[in-house]
Amino acid sequence: MITTKDKIGFIQRRRDADGKETFKYIEGKIKKIVIGKKKISVYSDKFYPLELADLEGNTRIFNEDRRVLIVGEPFITNDKLAAWCQKNVDYWNEHGAKSLLDD
Fold first, then answer.
1. CA separation (Å) from 45 to 4, 25, 87?
2. Are 58 and 73 in contact (CB under 8 A)?
3. What are the tens digits of pLDDT across the range 4-50?
4. Residue 34 and residue 89: Cα distance in Å, rounded?
5. Is 85 inside any structural domain?
6. pLDDT digits 0-9 by tens, 56-71
7. Taking a C-beta distance cutoff of 8 angstroms, is the pair 40, 53 a contact?
8. How far apart are CA 25 and CA 84, in angstroms?
């Protein structure tokens, strides 16, 4: 179960003025968790309110296949996963990223 001691990670994709693609790893602390009638909302210091079901689904993808990184979707992170994400982001910024859809 998620607690306020956990963190949320996010890999942001951007393009600069020259069209070069860059990535940034962002991490935020969970401030509160609100249990509603239909959903559980997670609030953090860096992101809009998120649904716990979405966070858990994105995190499950990371845990099932370490060859896949989700860009543009938040996930629950820990120190080990955060270091792995930052390492990949640094590599992509230096060498470029390859999508599953690229030839």
1. 11, 15, 23
2. yes
3. 888 999 999 998 888 888 999 999 999 999 999 999 999 999 988 99
4. 31
5. yes
6. 998 888 788 777 788 8
7. yes
8. 10
Q: Show the domain range for 47.
A: 7-95
Rounded Cα distance, 3 and 45, in Å:
14
19 within some domain: yes
Structural domain contains residue 55 = yes
DSSP string computed for 13-39: EEE-TT--EEEEEEEEEEEEEEE-SS-
Rg (alpha carbons) of the chain, rounded to whole number: 15
The pLDDT of residue 102 is 56
Task: Please report whether residue 76 resides in a domain.
Answer: yes
Q: How far apart, in whole angstroms, are the C-alpha atoms of residue 3 and residue 22?
A: 31
- pTM over the 0.90 mark: no
How far does Cα 22 stand from its chain's mean position?
Answer: 15
The one-character DSSP state at 89 is H
Provide the domain count of the chain.
1
